[in-house]
Amino acid sequence: MIRRLRAAAVQVLCLVAVLVVGTAVPAAAHNVTVGADLRIAQTIAGAEVTVVIKGTPRVPGPLRIGVIAYQPVTALPVGLEVRSVEDGRTATATARAAARDPQYAELRVNRTGPHELKLSAGNEVAVIPFRVLVDRGSAGDFLIYGGLFVAAMLLVGGLLTGALARRGTAMLLAAGAAAGVTVAVMVIVFEPWMPPPVPDGAAPEASSEPLSGAGSEAGSRVVTGGRPYVQTRVATVPARPAAGEEFTLRIDLVDGSTGRPVDDLTVHHEALAHVVVTSEDGRYFRHLHPLRTAPGRLEVRLRADRPGRYLTHAELERENSGGQLATATVTIGGEAPLSDPPSSNRSATDPATTDPATTDSAATDPTETGAGGVGAVPRLRPDVPVAGRPATIELDAPAGVRPWLGMAGHLLIRSQDGTFFGHVHEMGAPGSRLRFTFSFPQAGRYLAWAQYATGEGVVTVPFAVDVTASEATR
Fold first, then answer.
1. pTM, two decimal places
2. Distance between CA atoms of 133 and 202, rounded to whole angstroms?
3. Nearest residue to 253 via CA among 227, 226, 278, 217
4. Residues 217-226: what's their mean pLDDT?
5. 378-404 pLDDT, tens per residue?
């Protein structure tokens, strides 16, 4: 009898091991957690906002969407339309952007899987692809609750059988109950190390089959080993904008292996793409988050106050590929203004003054010590950074700094000639300080902009850094 009980216990444990291993899924770099909020920054209607899509626990069920503003706005209305890619059903609502505690609009979704969120504000429209995910439950949960249920039933049966003086049967039932408890405990112990189950609505897993179409559901079966980097084409509409004239910066994304539009960007640091536009002298600076206006096309509206050559740096990341920096230049025509008009004379709706990155282009000159207001004099350690060695940059910040793009602070650095661009994040300094660590690649002058968000908007602190060469390279 004891041998049979041991053999049965071993068989049960082997079955548990097979289920645990067989139902595990491989870890992925960009898994979206079921129930987590999806946050996507957008520069739309002259405002810097973050769209928040709340996780939904079930389908059919409610989908809540809110819009957080990172600059003063007066209840900016944002039209919402959610469409299922698979069956075409739509739901519409209107949200109003707010700096604090936005009111979430509630829409109804009827299925999991790929959806599109259409945003409408002012005369601009963006279409954001996303997926509705619902937890389907894991095999671990089934084994835990199933094991405990079986153990309880067998234990009750063992007690009743023992009361009827059938010891052999009672022992067998008690052993089964012990095995059920053992299964449940084993799964509880090892479940934290198991990969999460694939939720309903998740994208198909990668395979070794060739792509049949980039940007489509059929083309989402990717080649194991990663997708190629994106090829970018940057243009302006109109082709040669004049100083002070609003224009559209357009970025077309192309898959070099197929020639088709790339429409599989992942959300990284709460945006599909981060675009930084600077003038050659660094006096003009914009940190923007373009709108997806068509498959493989990103657009953002802005204007430059001076003619000349402007540098664009776009940070983006393709699914199953990795981060990428795309650079280009645009030319602004027209004549230079005789002098900058006072800020008080500028229109409050002028993108040059309401841009989320700054409120006055002249105040973003990184060569002017002390420009930018609060915390505008960063402290460097060492005072003169050495190329190739980490340097620490600290600046004071006011109380009430709130996360923006998932971080408390951002540091964007460009070499004076524009050939190098870097972007790092705040390191979690205690108190009302922001601390960054950065290694400058080579000696020379660098233009830098530190950014953080408060309840009033996004603050930009410009400054310049002179970096010396290491002794080994002198």
1. 0.77
2. 6
3. 227
4. 49
5. 999 999 999 999 999 999 999 889 999
Return the axis-axis angle of helices 2-22 and 167-190, rounded to nearest 10°.
Answer: 30
In the block, residue with structure tokens 């505008």: 376
Pair of tokens at residue 11: 């068989």
Instruction: List beta partners, residue 273.
Output: 316
